[in-house]
Amino acid sequence: MRMLSAATCLFGFLLFAVSGDSRQQAAGVFAQDPQAIALMKQALSALGGSVPQDSVATGTVSLIAGSKKDTGTIRILTRGLDQSSEQIQTTNATSKETFSKGSGASSDGLANKSVSLEWSATGQSSVFPLPLIASALTNPETAYQYMALENLDGLQVHHLRFWTTYASNPKLQTLTPFTVRDLWLDAVSGLPKKLSSVRRAAQ
Question: Does 41 score more than 90 pLDDT?
Answer without folding.
Answer: yes
